[in-house]
Write a structure and sequence with these properties.
Elements: E1 9-11, E2 14-17, E3 22-25, E4 28-29, H1 34-45, E5 50-52, H2 53-60, H3 68-82, E6 91-94, E7 98-101, H4 127-133, E8 144-148, E9 151-158, E10 164-168, H5 175-178, H6 182-192, E11 196-200, H7 219-232, E12 238-243, H8 246-256, E13 261-267, H9 285-298, H10 305-308, H11 316-329, H12 332-343, E14 358-363, H13 371-380, E15 385-389, H14 401-414, E16 423-435, H15 440-451, E17 455-459, E18 463-468, H16 471-488, E19 491-504, E20 507-509, H17 511-522, E21 528-531, H18 532-537, E22 545-553, E23 556-565
Parallel strand pairs: 10-11, 10-12, 12-13, 13-14, 14-15, 19-21
Antiparallel strand pairs: 1-2, 2-3, 3-4, 5-7, 6-7, 8-9, 9-11, 16-18, 16-19, 17-18, 19-20, 21-23, 22-23
C-alpha cells in the first residue's frame, strides 16, 4: 500500500507513522532509538531504490561525522526488529555501496517471527536464539585505539549482531591473549554471534597505556574510559557485561549514563571489597596482605588460578596460558596496586540508583567471590534478575559457560528498549558565596565549572549549583574555586553530594541538589564538604578527607555522614 494522506508507511505487518515517530508491529508499538527510526523511514520511503552509505549517513546524521559502523549497527537492529530471514528479506545490502529496501509496501505479506520471544535460546523463532545456535566462524579482530585525554585505550570490535555488548573483564586483561586459549575465544565468539562485541583493556593493563603506580585509575576514570571506547567504536547504546571488578564500574556507568546503557549484565561481581558489618563477605586485612605477598613472589606463575578457575587448576595448558595472560596484562607492581585500588571500591550507594534492565549472574560455589555478594548486588538494584549457576569457577568462560551464554542471550532477547530514565546519577556541587570583594567571582566560578566539564543548573545570587558526571572532578573543581576565592579575598563554601537527580526538560533537581545546598550552607568558609557517597566513589584518587560526623537536615530524610576535603 502506498503512503496515505497522513504520510503513514505500511509494509508487511508493520506501520510507520513518521509525523508521530511511531513504529507499530501489527498492533504492538515498538520503541526504536531515534537514529534507527530515521534510518527505517528513509529506507522505506525510498523502497526499491539503492541508497549509498554516504547518502544515508548525511540524512540520518546531518550535523555529525560518524563512521560506517554506526550505520551498520542501525541496519542490524532493524533487521532484528523486522524479523528478517533468508526467505523474507526487507533490507538488501549492495556490496561496497549501500542498502535498498526490497519489501513491497503492502498491508500484509508473509509472516515473520516476532522479536520478543520468551527464552530466546531454545526457541528457533528468536533471532538471537538462531544466531547463538549457529555461530559463524569469525576472524580474529584487529586492535584499535580510543583516546580519553592523554590516555590511549586498546579496543577490539568483533561480530555484526543487531545490538552491542561491551565486555569488561575484571582485574587485569590483555585483548590479544583473550584469543590464545580456546575456552575464552569460544566464549567471546559465542557472544559475538548474536551481538557486535566490543572489548577493551582498562588503562594500566594489557595493550592500553600503562600508568604510574601512584596514578592508577579510579572507578570514575575507568567509567570515562568505557565512555570513550563506546564513542570510538560508534556505539550509541550497548549492553554492558562486567566480570568481577568490571561489575561495579559498569553499574556506575549505567547509573550515570542510562541513555547509553541498553542493559546491565554482571557476572561474579561485588559491591565492595573491604569487610564491613553489613558486608561480611569481603576479605579481612590479613587475607589481603597475604595475597599481595603471593602476587609479589609468584607473578609469572598462574597466580590465583585455584580460586578463579578451580576446574582447570590441574590443566597444564590452561595454567600456562593463565600465567602468560597475567604477565602480559600487568607487571607485579601494577597487579598489587590494582588489587589495592579494587579493595577501596564501594558502590553500595550506587546500586539502588541503577534504572536499566539488569541481570546478575553468579556460580554457587565461587571460591573467589561468594555467591552471597552476587545476591546482595541483585537485591540492591530495583527490578534486577538474579541467576545462580552450579560450579565453583569465578571466570565465566570456564566450567559450564553454555549456561552463561544462554542466560545472556535470553536476557537480551527479553529486554525492551526503554525511554531514557528521568532520573540519573550525578554529582551536584553547590558554591555558596559568603562574601564578595568584586563581582568577577561569579564569572570565575562559572569558568572553573566549565574547565572541569561541569554543567551549571542554577546561577542564583548566593548559590551557584552545577552537576558533574564524576565526583573526583567535582571535588577538584571545588578546591580550585576555594583557592581562587582565597587569593582574591572572597569567601565561599562548597558542598557536594552524589545521588539521584530528577531530569526535567534537561534541568536537574531533586534531593541530591537540595542536599548539596544544605551541605554547602553547613560548611565552614573556605572548605569543601562532601557526603560519604562522594568519598566512597573517589577511592584511589589520592584525595584526602577528615570525617566530620553524622548530620541531619530539616526536610531531608535520614542522617548523612560528612567529610572535609583536605586541601
Amino acid at each position: 500500500m502506498a503512503d496515505d494522506e497522513k504520510g503513514t508507511l505500511k509494509f508487511d505487518r508493520f506501520t510507520v507513522i513518521p509525523a508521530e515517530r511511531q513504529f507499530i508491529d501489527a498492533e504492538r508499538p515498538v520503541r526504536l532509538p531515534p537514529r534507527v527510526f530515521d534510518t527505517l523511514v528513509l529506507l522505506v520511503r525510498n523502497a526499491g531504490k539503492v541508497l549509498s552509505k554516504d547518502e544515508i549517513m548525511r540524512s540520518v546524521w546531518p550535523d555529525s561525522f560518524v563512521e560506517e559502523n554506526n550505520l551498520a549497527q542501525n541496519i542490524s537492529l532493524l533487521r532484528r526488529v523486522l524479523g528478517e530471514t533468508r526467505d523474507n528479506k526487507f533490507i538488501e545490502t549492495v556490496p561496497k555501496f549501500g542498502y535498498r529496501f526490497v519489501m513491497p509496501r503492502s498491508e500484509r505479506a508473509a509472516s515473520v517471527p516476532d522479536i520478543e520471544v520468551e527464552g530466546a535460546i531454545g526457541d528457533p523463532t528468536s533471532p538471537i536464539g538462531q544466531m547463538v545456535r549457529e555461530p559463524e566462524a569469525l576472524e580474529l579482530p584487529g586492535t584499535r585505539y580510543a583516546q580519553n585525554g592523554e590516555v590511549n585505550l586498546a579496543y577490539q570490535v568483533v561480530g555484526e549482531g543487531p545490538v552491542d555488548i561491551v565486555f569488561v573483564m575484571g582485574w587485569v586483561s590483555h585483548l590479544e591473549y583473550f584469543w590464545k586459549h580456546h575456552l575464552f575465544a569460544s566464549f567471546l565468539r559465542r557472544l559475538a554471534s548474536f551481538s557486535r562485541l566490543i572489548l577493551f583493556d582498562k588503562r594500566g593493563t594489557g595493550l592500553s597505556d600503562r600508568v604510574p603506580l601512584n596514578e592508577l585509575p579510579t572507578l570514575e576514570q575507568r567509567m570515562e574510559d568505557l565512555h570513550a571506547v563506546m564513542d570510538a567504536a560508534g556505539s550509541e547504546r550497548a549492553f554492558l557485561f562486567g566480570v568481577s571488578e568490571g561489575g561495579p564500574m559498569c553499574a556506575l556507568f549505567a547509573a550515570t549514563y542510562p541513555e547509553r546503557t541498553a542493559g546491565l549484565m554482571m557476572f561474579g561481581t561485588y559491591a565492595k571489597r573491604t569487610r564491613d558489618v553489613d558486608y561480611p563477605w569481603a576479605p579481612e586485612a590479613d587475607e589481603r596482605s597475604k595475597f599481595f605477598e603471593t602476587v609479589r613472589r609468584d607473578w609469572g606463575k598462574p597466580v590465583g588460578v585455584e580460586e578463579r578457575a578451580p576446574s582447570m587448576a590441574n590443566d597444564h595448558e590452561f595454567c600456562e596460558w593463565w600465567a602468560a595472560y597475567l604477565r602480559m596484562g600487568a607487571s607485579p607492581g601494577a597487579a598489587v596496586a590494582l588489587t589495592k585500588m579494587n579493595a577501596e571500591i564501594d558502590v553500595r550507594s550506587v546500586l539502588p540508583l541503577v534504572r536499566v534492565p539488569t541481570l546478575v549472574m553468579h556460580r554457587k560455589g565461587d571460591l573467589c567471590l561468594r555467591v552471597d555478594e552476587g545476591r546482595y548486588v541483585a537485591s540492591r538494584i530495583p527490578g534486577s534478575k538474579f541467576v545462580e549457576f552450579d560450579g565453583d569457577d569465578h571466570l565465566p568462560f570456564v566450567g559450564d559457560h553454555e549456561s552463561v551464554i544462554n542466560a545472556v542471550a535470553g536476557f537480551m532477547s527479553e529486554t525492551v528498549w526503554q525511554d531514557v530514565p528521568e532520573r540519573v546519577l550525578a554529582t551536584v556541587m553547590t558554591v555558596k558565596i559568603v562574601d564578595i570583594e568584586g563581582e568577577s567571582i561569579r564569572q570565575r566560578i562559572e569558568r572553573s565549572i566549565s574547565l572541569f566539564r561541569g554543567s551549571p543548573i542554577d546561577l542564583g545570587s548566593d548559590n551557584i549549583v552545577a552537576t558533574f558526571d564524576g565526583p573526583a572532578r567535582a571535588i577538584r573543581c571545588g578546591l580550585a574555586i576555594i583557592g581562587d576565592a582565597r587569593r582574591s579575598g572572597d569567601a565561599v563554601r562548597v558542598g557536594l553530594h552524589t545521588g539521584e537527580c530528577d531530569v526535567v526538560g534537561g534541568r536537574y533537581g531533586g534531593v541530591a541538589s537540595e542536599l548539596s545546598q544544605r551541605i554547602a550552607a553547613f560548611a565552614d568558609e573556605g572548605t569543601v564538604v562532601v557526603s560519604r557517597t562522594v568519598k566512597d566513589l573517589v577511592a584511589g584518587s589520592g584525595i584526602g578527607f577528615n570525617e566530620i560526623g553524622l548530620r541531619s537536615f530539616e526536610g531531608i530524610e535520614g542522617e548523612w555522614r560528612l567529610f572535609d576535603v583536605i586541601d
